Amino acid sequence: MSESTTLQNDVSLESSVPEGGASLESILCTEELQRRPSRPPDHEKENRALVKLVSALADSPSTIFHTLAETIEDITQCDSAGLSLLTRDGKTPHVDGQRFYWPAICGMWNPHVGGGTPRNFGPCGDVLDQNRTLLFTHFERRYPYLMPVSPAAEECLLVPFYVNGKAVGTIWGIMHSDRRKFDAEDDRVMASLGKFASSAYQAWMHIEELKVEVAEREMAEAEVRELAKGLEAKIRRLVEANAVGIMMFNLDGAITEANAAFLHMVQFDHDDLASGRVRWADLTPTEWRARDERALIEIKATGAVQPYEKEYFRKDGIRVPVMVGGALFEGTPSAGVAFVLDLTEQKRAQEKLEDARRALHATQAELARVTRLTTMGELGASIAHEVNQPLTAVTNNSSACLRLLANGNLDPEVLRQALEEIVADATRASAVISRIRAFIKKAPTEMYELDINNVIREVLALADHELQNNQVSLECHLSETLPHVRADRVQMQQVLLNLIMNAAEAMTGTQPRTLSLDSGTDESGNVLVAVRDSGTGFGSEVDRLFTPFFTTKGNGMGMGLPISRSLIESHGGRLWATANSPQGAVFSFTLPASGESHS
Amino acid sequence: MTAASLVFVIDDDPSVRSSLKFLLSTVGLQVDSSESANGFLHKKRPDVPSCLVLDIRLPGLSGIDFQRELAARNICIPIVFLTGHGDIPMSVRAIKAGAVEFLTKPFRDQDLLDAVHVALDRDRARRKQESELADIRQRFDSLSSREQEVISMVVGGMLNKQIAAELGTAESTVKVQRSRAMEKMQAESLAHLIKMMQKLQLPSEKAS
Question: Cβ-count burial of A459 within 10 angstroms (0-12 exposed, 13-18 middle, 19+ buried)?
């Protein structure tokens, strides 16, 4: 104790330290514990400390390690107390870590928080290897890297603790002088705190995992990032707002004491509690009883129960999702203290996250759909170019041959060459067309039961902007009692979008501009959809409307209507055009009603 | 048709290029084809009536941009545009900028040949006009400065007497200079002289 503790914060974690001078046996004196005169147990102090620890666990899990160190220091009256946890990166716990770090230290070694020791050559490693409590004296004689850590440890009592059967760390107390020696009572108390350390570890990890989970979601989904942040904030707020319930219970089902947070959670008041009406056994829905049974077995065997999720009934009968963990009091093994975390907010946040995720997927699907819809249009220009090039060459070569032939001037060699080129270009044109066909086929048909009215509404939403731009007024007469059809949603959207866009274009420059969409059934019970416009109509061109590459539009491909018709026909329906009165066109199609009846 | 004319074809598609050449050759036209605008610009263009058959969709420069580029370089050549995809706004712009015709691929052979002939006629007319002008200028330049002065005043409507007074010389001298100038200008009449002088757009002296 003579030296000041002004050493560097981080003790070397070099794991390849050569064997120190002293043997392991020479620095151990565990057996002495039983021989030393032992002080009497102070159950009252111990229970108080335990309650304080459980409260701390509920209120501020992030500082739970520090609170645990304080408790060790307080109960064993030692000079330094702390935890060592296995880690990989030197600052976060990890069960497969290859060294220990010190997340919390109270007392004289406090300046060394954050330091640590190697897994395979150090006191903590020895404790985990031997899987029991060990008492060391002057361990720096064997582990030279502890030499500069001051003040030196006269005695150090180390207790391993486990999570899910795996040792993850130690808790320890140190005497820096011989003013007091550890005894059997310290051994017992430390063992009890060791059990608690496990809960503390898990609670802390639980919070950390939530943080990690949130972080991962943030990375994966930029769109739901805001929400995920909200979730993290909610959890933090939950913890900080003292929204954690604490209750004293006994194993027969009673709740003897509870804080306001718990009562609020289950909507009871202090009078209910005083009357003994509030029993945890009664608050638990039937299907959670078995889980409670398992918890009881665990708590009886180990003195503590790992936090688990369940539900409680509130006074009004509504269920509240919670997380419960607890420990039995030393000395009165039929009673204990439990913390109860209200998970309602968390569940709700998770649901919102799910909603956001679903919305994201829906948006992506929508995007893919719109892309497919517009691809045909974009293809238009490129199809025209790619097909027109070889066709131009074919036409030119043929015309040239015909001219020479008419002049009686055609050299057979010239003719042969021209014909070869004609054949090559015709082949090229058909290759382009089969490429396009393959491309179009790439989107597989997906047949589902559909309400065509929904498809109409979706397409109107897509076309809305265009219709507004063209100052088209819209009238919809959609039958409420329409049978479903079995169809590919995207193809139906393509057909409708095509008809609607055609109608809008046919009305540029005319007055009035009215687009009307009707749905209903025809006399055979087929679903009938009609798209009417008040545009220029088609006069004598009506016969050629569905001929491929026929177009009346300046920039039209002449493919929209033929494709639409073949899509409708592949669904077993018909698509035709008639004149509208007093002006414009009506494009109608039918689709066979599916077996499923309308809603 | 005069054999001494040349049709330039620019299209990035070799089949289209060669078929155009074949088609144009059947009416006795000479064709020089390039696959890009740059290829055309780097060619030596012989001094004969010519026109350009140009695909609007060129690699690198668009046909319309190329049309503008030619104007900027002061290259006057009539253009027949070809397009794979009828685009009305684009064709309007092309025609406004002086294109002869705008044909959508594939086109009727006669439409192309007609367009090419119109383009060549237009170029021929332009060339004729330009060479006439050059002729007139040459003749005018061969006059003495006094003769130039005299006929400028004649075209301005002054009488010989007035001119003599203006120049401070005898009327007979003006008469001699005037008839010599008319002869050098190969003017058949006063009206002919006035027409030629108008083409030169020289400022004529006004009678005072």
Answer: buried
DSSP alpha helix (H) spans, A254-343: 260-266, 270-274, 280-283, 289-302
**What does the alpha-carbon distance between residue A67 and residue A242 come to, in Å, rounded to a whole number?**
17
Asked if A384 is an interface residue toward chain B (Cβ–Cβ < 8 A), one would say: yes
Residue-wise pLDDT tens digits, A69-108: 998 998 888 999 999 999 888 778 887 888 899 989 999 9
* Cα within 13 Å of Cα(A80), Cβ side: 27
Q: What is the mean pLDDT of residues A426-433?
A: 79
Measured between CA atoms, how close is B85 to chain A, in angstroms? Answer: 6
Residue A557: DSSP 8-state: -
B residues 74..103 contacting A (CB < 8 A): 82, 84-88
A155-163 and A105-107 beta bridge pairing: unpaired
CA distance A389 to chain B (A): 6
CA pair distance B55, B99, nearest whole angstrom: 12
Residue A420 CB-density burial (10 A; 0-12 exposed, 13-18 middle, 19+ buried): exposed
Q: Which of B15, B26, B84 sits opposite A385 (nearest CB)?
A: B84
0.80 exceeded by pTM:
no
Bridging pattern class, strands A155-163 and A116-118: unpaired
The DSSP code for A593 is: B
> What is the complex's ipTM, to 2 decimals?
0.72
Written as one letter, the residue type at A191 is A
- Look-up: residue for tokens 């439990």? A338
pLDDT tens column, A146-166: 888 889 899 999 999 888 778
* Nearest of A564, A541, A565 to residue A551 by alpha carbon: A541
Q: How far apart are CA A53 and CA A329, in angstroms?
A: 12
Task: Give the distance from CA B163 to its chain's centroid.
Answer: 37
Among the partner residues B13, B26, B87, nearest to A403 by beta-carbon distance: B26
Whether B30 and B49 have beta carbons less than 8 Å apart is answered as no
Mutate: best of B21, B24, B103, B105, partner A, most A CBs <10 A? B105
Nearest CA in chain B to A549: B85
For chain B, the residue count is 208
Is A151 in contact with A2 (CB distance < 8 Å)? yes
Beta-carbon separation of B15 and A421 below 8 A:
yes
Burial class (CB in 10 A: 0-12, 13-18, 19+), B11: buried
